[in-house]
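User: Small ask, check this?
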Amino acid sequence: MKKQFNRMRQLANQTVEKRLELVKQVSHSTHKKLTACLQGQQGVDVDKKSKKLPLTTLAQCMVDGAAVLGDESLLGKMLKLCGETQDRLAQELILFELTTERDVIEPLYDLAEVEIPNIQKQRKHLAKLVLDMDSARTRYYQSTKSSGLSSNLQPTGAKADHLREEMEEAANRMEICRDQLSADMYSFVAKEIDYASYFQTLIEVQAEYHRKSLELLQSVLPQIKAHQETWVEKPCYGKPLEEHLALSGRDIAFPIEACVTMLLECGMQEEGLFRIAPSASKLKKLKASLDCGVLDVQEYSADPHAIAGALKSYLRELPEPLMSFELYNDWIQASNIQDQDKRLQALLNACEKLPPANNNNFKYLIKFLSKLTEYQDVNKMTPGNIAIVLGPNLLWTHNEGNITEMMTTVSLQIVGIIEPIIQHADWFFPGEIEFNVTGNYGSPVHTNHNANYSSMPSPDMDQIDRKQSDQSRRPLSVATDNMMLEFYKKDGFPAGSLNQ
């Protein structure tokens, strides 16, 4: 019975010993990988750990950059706010890593490198004690044989007593060590729930760190967005009209007012205005200038085609046409009415349905285009010609078909909408209009390459002979203009009405 019990105990100990080795391997590798995840140096004080964090370096870089750019710059404001945020995130990261070191990494180290090795050392020590006991017992039994006594009799004498005591002491030491080893092994098995809690602690600490970091980021996001939303120097091309007006505090979009005001000063007698394409590089530069709200009027006063091109681009790049998607069918239906008076009234009804922002800017533009036609003998831009090149930039559908369909049906109808509105601008929009709404644009002295004048010419001036080579210009600004011109020719419009 005793042998069977010892056998069972031996098997149990072997199982625990094998588990000890596996737990040691897993704990050691986990400790090593977890330590590698730390961004700060392990085992140093808070200040040294903070200086070594990449987040701290990033925060300082941002704060320094903010000082260079200053608070008057949006980038400066953003860098300062983000730098302060990165610094606070770094502090949360330090707290997380310190807690992880104390509650997870160090206990894992103790388990893998101290507790389990101590038990394994005890196991080796027990094996040594077993050998010592076996050796002592062997010497004692050899002494018995040499004295000629049977195995049932105890040898006598000082030597025999010493050997017996040595054997009994070795057996006692072995038993004590075995009991201690068994106790430690059973304790290890019983404490597995404690060892498992290290990993629960890791997740809890991570959750707390990420929760605090998220709260910090969420608290700063509204400030970042507020800086963005209140910054008036925003791009206007490709942005919704109402958004641009709200941010800039305007009633008339900046590109529209800037371009119209400049054209009033230098472009009213320019032949083919809105039709002749400007230099691509000059147009790109002017659009970029308008986008950032910085405009050198003097520079562009000598290039009215670039100004007209910038205005066309702004209208076309609006996410929704100035005349709106919602009223598209109203405009088209009005253009199909045969009776002129009823058609004009229907167009007026559609016009009055425009949102206030669209209506204000549409009125401003139409009044300008009407004024442009006062110089049509010189600039060749009749209401019909203007409608051809500007109409598709004022009204289009959500889903435009192929370009041929657009030209043959839709765009011709759009021309039929824009032309009468320009012709009857004072009926649609009674009263005078102040084009220089903000008073920001002066009257630059300029030299027009076609009309050689240094101030705004009067309508009754004699037309100056123009000798500029047609080879230096593209005939139309976009391919669609060419197509529309061809369709107009087919419909009986005078061929020279656009290219005189």
About this structure: The chain has two domains: 1-145+160-230, 241-428. The CA atoms of residues 46 and 94 lie 7 Å apart. Confidence is low (pLDDT under 50) at residues 442-500.
